[in-house]
Amino acid sequence: MRPALLDPLFASLASLPGIGPKTGELFAKLLGHESIDDCRVIDLVFHLPHSLIDRRNQPGIMHAPQGAIVTVSGRVDRHQPPPPGKSSVPYRVFLHDDTGELALTFFRAKGDWLTKSLPVDEQVIVSGKVDWFNGRASMVHPDFMVKASEAATMPLVEPVYGLTAGLSPRTLRKAVEAAVERVPPLPEWIDGPLVARQGFPAASNAFSALHHPCDTLDLDLQAPARRRLAYDEFLAGQISLALVRQTLRRVAGRPVTATGALSEPVLAALPFALTGSQQTAIAEVKADMATDQRMLRLLQGDVGSGKTAVALMAMLAAVESGGQAVLMAPTEILARQHHATLSKMAEPAGVTLDVLTGRTKGRERDQILERIESGETNIVVGTHALFQDNVVYRDLALAVVDEQHRFGVHQRLRLTAKGISPHMLVMTATPIPRTLVLAAFGDMDVSKLTEKPAGRKPIQTVIMPQERTGEIVERLRTAISEGKKGYWICPLVEETEESDLMSVEERHATLAGVFGNAVGLVHGRMSGPQKDEAMLAFKSGETRLLVATTVVEVGVDVPDATIMVIEHAERFGLAQLHQLRGRVGRGDGASSCILLYKGPLSENGRARLGILRETEDGFRIAEEDLKLRGEGELLGTRQSGTPGFLVASIEAHGDLLEIARKEAAYTLEKDPQLESERGQAIRTLLYLYRRDEAIRFLRAG
Ligand code: ADP
Ligand code: MG
């Protein structure tokens, strides 16, 4: 049981003040969850700032540089409301200091609110970004406005967090602040002498320090608070891995002997020949599964490299030897798609597949569970619903996990805790360095798909300003009339007040005006069946242009789609753009990707998009992305350390990983059941970093 101490941190994120249904969706997106119901307060505590705004800069109005964030102390001169009936004209309030005049500019503002907060003749302090135009200074929607008498209420140094489109920095900051306040004093789980040697602050103080930086040094990866949390994260990981290993050693695997009875007809019916690296990967997997040691293998391959076919061959081998296999996908859409694709591929072998997700309910669900338990079903595709307690497998020989970045060691543990020990194949498109694989998974073998299937043509990528949208629509008109298909990606579901982005719904409406029924729509707020229907219509060709949000980011496979338009490309991370672009170029038709940006682009922004034009190599893109990321201007980037970790960075904190590894081994040797006072504290640590699945093994003995 989780210690009650941590309850406030594991309360639903929606329990924080200021998070409603609408902002909830944005928070979910920011934190990489599908819905707000999956977000906990702790997720926000781990959302660390990447930089800070220093409001101590008070150069005087005349000396404020263009675009700089400054604080101005001045006297209010006059108000200039918009003329009656013209709400599109902004409301302006003029103030001055010794050096000059500043116009505060408000769109759709309430006049009485402004007269109250900025009374004429009052001495006020405002802070925000200064814009110069025709020799006049203005500040649009200041971040802060206080009367001089209340100056102390304005924070002079403010942390800046990674955002997602539509979420205002202020809303996010308030929520983070509330989340951090819920961090209780935590028991010390690190050995005293080590704490002293490293100069670590207490864990709860470390959280507070990172969210209340005084200057940029406090945000450095080597700041004591950051190092403390990085160590904690490594320690939690190493302890849980050690617990897993302890247990796995006791359970033998189930040897799988492939006969070829099923895979051969399937192979023969495939419309393509396997690539060399697919064949090698399949051979490696089969060799692993043939022994009674449990396979734990990572299959790395860039988008489009054909991981699914490898998975199918592995699953068929499991079925040939009389066992069952599951494939787990990170989302509902992907699970359904995999089910459709794999069912079709497996047809020649006469193997039928079931699909099980959170959406599978009632009678249908009961029937599927029955078929799984009786062994009538040999292959099940689904989401994490596959591993819930009430799912009983007759003889699970292999579990394949697709796009693992959302899944960790937890699922493995859950399975083992159920008393089954299938072979595991984890598939990912994310390049993960060897050290990281070790840290995240412990010992794991790796197969790589290094070649793309033959016949793929390079995707032609172009970068264009949004102003040329009309031209793109014309090009699409021609392409669609020639029978081609494409995606049109928008960052937002619907218009929000704070954003000038085109929403997916609005874009759908304008494109439907041009293309009529040929345009489909899919986004995260649609119900599951609605999403399926939209995907199916696009796949079958009933619709030829699919307007979508990033719900199609991972794994969606419609090989005859050849055009990808991404609106507001500057808002996306490079890896994300690479994944999105990977939705085209999957068949033998020539494909193109059009990245539309809203200018002006910063130099860094231009460089980032340029990389995509230069290369399709996911590994290189990830590398370059990391290099450029330093500037922290990337919207929607979680300021996390290494992928898979919340705060730790293998590169920056490698020394700590080594210490954590040793400490974990030593701790478990002395206190294998984690019963001592420190052992109890370590249990708390495991819960805090969500490594608590490992605790089950302690009870199981
Ligand atoms: P990913 O590695 O991104 O999961 P998929 O498994 O979805 O890639 O495969 C991408 C596309 O390439 C699919 O349409 C699949 O049918 C096709 N494909 C897979 N292997 C080959 C191959 N050896 N030759 C040609 N096409 C292939
Ligand atoms: Mg895939």
From TrEMBL:
Residue ranges occupied by any Helicase ATP-binding domain in the UniProt entry: 288-449
Record keywords, A-Z: ATP-binding, DNA damage, DNA recombination, DNA repair, DNA-binding, Helicase, Hydrolase, Isomerase, Nucleotide-binding
Catalytically driven reaction(s): ATP + H2O = ADP + phosphate + H(+); Couples ATP hydrolysis with the unwinding of duplex DNA by translocating in the 3'-5' direction
MF-aspect GO terms: 3'-5' DNA helicase activity; ATP binding; DNA binding; hydrolase activity
Domain Helicase C-terminal span(s) in chain numbering: 472-627
Enzyme class, spelled out: isomerase
Top-rank lineage group of the source organism: Bacteria
Pfam families linked: DEAD, Helicase_C, RecG_dom3_C, RecG_wedge
SMART domains named among the record's database cross-references: DEXDc (SM00487), HELICc (SM00490)
PROSITE patterns associated with the record: HELICASE_ATP_BIND_1, HELICASE_CTER
InterPro entries: ATP-dep_DNA_helicase_RecG (IPR004609), DEAD/DEAH_box_helicase_dom (IPR011545), Helicase_ATP-bd (IPR014001), Helicase_C-like (IPR001650), NA-bd_OB-fold (IPR012340), P-loop_NTPase (IPR027417), RecG/Mfd (IPR047112), RecG_dom3_C (IPR045562)
EC numbers for this chain: 5.6.2.4
GO BP terms, alphabetized: DNA recombination; DNA repair
PANTHER family: ATP-DEPENDENT DNA HELICASE HOMOLOG RECG, CHLOROPLASTIC (PTHR47964)
Family note: Belongs to the helicase family. RecG subfamily.
Chain's role: Plays a critical role in recombination and DNA repair. Helps process Holliday junction intermediates to mature products by catalyzing branch migration. Has replication fork regression activity, unwinds stalled or blocked replication forks to make a HJ that can be resolved. Has a DNA unwinding activity characteristic of a DNA helicase with 3'-5' polarity.
The protein's name: ATP-dependent DNA helicase RecG
Source organism of this protein record: Mycoplana azooxidifex
